[in-house]
Amino acid sequence: MNILTEDIRAKKANKITWIGFFANLILTSVKLIAGIIGNSTAMIADAIHSLSDFTTDIIILISFKIVRKPSDKDHNYGHGKFETLATTIIGIALFVVGIGILYSSGENIYSAMLLKTNLESPRIIALITALLSMITKEILFRITLKAGEEINSSAVIANAWHHRSDAFSSIGTFIGIGGSILLGDNWRVLDPIAATIVSIFIMKTAYGISIGSIKELLEESLDDSTNKNILEIIENINQVISPHELKTRRVGNKIIIDIHINVKNNLSIVEAHKINDEIERKIKKIYGDNTIINIHTEPEDE
Hints:
Elements: H1 6-37, H2 41-67, H3 80-113, H4 124-150, H5 154-183, H6 190-217, H7 224-235, E1 241-251, E2 254-263, H8 269-287, E3 292-299
Parallel strand pairs: 2-3
Antiparallel strand pairs: 1-2
């Protein structure tokens, strides 16, 4: 299994992020203008959501500038945690955006339904813009997700889901604005109701993005299935006895494995070293050439 170098990963991540950055720049401006001219709180909320994409794009660009640096005396395992940290920040930022939209739309619903305040009817320009945003954001989601999977980047994949949450936001906005326009004055509250539903989707997406990266920052082990597979690979290598004390964790796009094995007492250091080399070769074949494996070899009777 061949792994891209950090420099190539950074270049690919930067390229797709810059594409998203300029697309967001244009889209946010159009949505904000359409929301103001079109009297749509849902569209303005949608524009604010898109505005948050600028922050996450900048975070990714900065993080990959650090990630591409080689290991040094202060970061012996590389700078992969910066990518994980970027993913966490994206998730938290997205969650905050969701809360903000929920609060704003909740105020409008309260005003319309309890205080009987008349809400302005959205205009057709807001409806057209919502449709444009849906299409644009879905395209951005697909190309960003593809790039993120190609370079195995949790931060880029998280940013892709940020685009998808924006697409969902625009779908809700489209339904709310369309309902407000087509059903008349009594249904203008559909606009902020749509914004409320969208905010829930956004917070759900944010939680999914954040929880995995937070676990990684807290040094959580790899999942049970992966740990079991690692042990099976090692157990099936000739002359390995009782692999034990397996410890695993993830740093950016690489995994780190610590394992103890027993070998026959009469093996020479050279023979034991060859066994360790075989373990490393087979593990890296499955989990990538950048996998870090620390093997503690013990005599059989220890």
